[in-house]
Amino acid sequence: MTIIRAIRRWLEVRLGIDELVEKQLTGYLLPRNINAWYSLGSVLLVIFGIQVATGILLLVYYVPDAQKAFSSVSQIMNDVPFGWLIRMSHAVGSNMMVAVLLLHMLSTLFMGSYKSPRELNWLTGFILFNLVLAISLTGYLLPWSQLSFWATTVATNSAGAIPVIGTYLTEFLRGGKLVGPATLGRFFAVHVALLPVAIALLVGAHLFILERIGVSTPPFGLKETTNTWQGDRFRYEGHPGGIPFFPNYLLQDATTIMIYLAVFFAVVFFDPYLFFPPTAFVPADPYRTPAHIKPEWYFLANYQTLKVFPNELLGLMVQGAAMTFLALLPFIDRGRERHPLKRPAFLVCFIGGIILYLAMMIWGHYS
């Protein structure tokens, strides 16, 4: 025991572990009325970890060659021990990550947690959302199935509607005039190298800003719900009398993560093809266009928007304007009130936006 105590003291002098634990865990106080929605960030970190781990395991057998990609995926599913579990966990996980990220952003909007001084938190989160969509899109092509081949063809065709640079941008994305082996190579490199590193760096920046600014107080159960930040100097948002992160809120985090894992493994084990139409299991054939080509569920609203407008450029402009508005929302909405029921105009736009998004998604699915 003396030796262990001596080693611990030696490490403590050099690393300051007790001080770190006090600052980041037991002494890190959160608002007493904090709710489970705040745990979604921890759930996303777990999902990202699972995606990285399963992605690395898939790389052992996957071959990024147009002649071999589909057969290598079939080999993973049928011949590699537990290969089906790794592959389906990765594929289902990408869909679940988008769904949880959407819920995380909606809860942030609803509770007004994007308001000053958390503009950079919102902005880094918004960019993360787009990077997750990009990594999902690039991963979609890798199985080299009929679905992935033609969905990528349609998606890259949309870039051609941009004036002046559209044709060059389409050829740059494809590595040629048509989707082919060069496209697979480019998407593979971006999917396994560029985007994971970019996402990891941005997650680090997001957490750093959260640590510096402090966790926002939920606007529920309080008499005063206006934003009290003055903006003339930096002030960390502390929560005197709050609950410690460890063990109190860590238990809430663990509960939410367990609920997520229960749902995740229920899909993986009982309905693993929930997100996959039949064309996802047919090898890519550039000479045979499927009767119905549709993107994954989270791109259905964008897909239907492009069909509603008379030309693709107008549809892209509308979507670009909507995305720019969302990204800059903290700089546009400078109101001090954070409680959603005391912001009727915001509440109408919030609910209307969700209904419109769901309606376009359903319309896109059945159109």
From TrEMBL:
Major subcellular location class: membrane
Location relative to the cell: Membrane
Biological processes, Gene Ontology terms: respiratory electron transport chain
Transmembrane segments: 36-63, 84-110, 122-142, 188-210, 257-276, 313-332, 344-366
Keyword Iron: yes
CDD domains with a match to the protein in the record: Cytochrome_b_N (cd00284)
The UniProt record lists the keyword DNA-binding: no
Membrane topology: Multi-pass membrane protein
Record's protein name: Cytochrome B6
